[in-house]
Write a sequence for this structure.
């Protein structure tokens, strides 16, 4: 089996996102409860310190990957922005009450170590049950109901991502938000997700 079939490059964005969250929460002892989460497909959110309930999340980071296919291999450049020390415009990691403030050098080293471990496993196993469990442990969207603009404004409940090509799975809802049995799959590079409005729409 080719590496592309077993470990599609589209999952790279998910591996990087997992490495960031895992890097933050394994930064040192006492950091495992730092409230950072994954927003599909490639954003990092954190609990808003201004909301004592811990139910409001704001964006603190994002991932951008450029890829080029040449000579039967993908060459990828990964860009990551993560608000570590500056509390504007939303919040930062150091505003989340860590045991001691994050330092950029140590955090970068931890994220890269986590990515290396995750990538090594991914090449061997693909996006297997281990990765599914880890991804859903951190993501924001469990059972979230959204509106799919490109599908005529239907309502749907998010069910996860596919393990073959990393597509977002959404279950169509009908009368009184009852499932119709229809499952839709959405590509990350063709759709944008307005988390606060619960709206998924085509990119223009």
């Amino acid at each position: 089996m080719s590496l592309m079939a077993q470990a599609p490059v589209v999952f790279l964005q998910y591996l990087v996102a997992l490495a960031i969250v895992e890097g933050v929460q394994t930064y040192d002892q006492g950091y495992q409860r730092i409230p950072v989460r994954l927003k599909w497909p490639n954003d990092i959110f954190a609990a808003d310190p201004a909301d004592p309930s811990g139910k409001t999340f704001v964006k603190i980071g994002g991932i951008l990957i450029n890829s080029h296919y040449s000579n039967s291999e993908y060459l990828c450049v990964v860009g990551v922005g993560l608000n570590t020390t500056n509390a504007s415009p939303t919040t930062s990691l150091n505003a989340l009450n860590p045991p001691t403030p994050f330092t950029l050098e140590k955090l970068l080293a931890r994220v890269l170590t986590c990515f290396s471990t995750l990538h090594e496993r991914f090449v061997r196993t693909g996006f297997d049950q281990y990765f599914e469990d880890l991804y859903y442990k951190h993501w924001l969207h469990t059972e979230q109901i959204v509106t799919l603009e490109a599908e005529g404004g239907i309502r749907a409940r998010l069910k996860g991502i596919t393990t073959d090509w990393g597509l977002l799975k959404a279950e169509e809802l009908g009368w009184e938000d009852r499932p119709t049995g229809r499952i839709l799959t959405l590509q990350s590079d063709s759709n944008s997700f307005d988390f606060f409005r619960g709206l998924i729409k085509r990119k223009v």
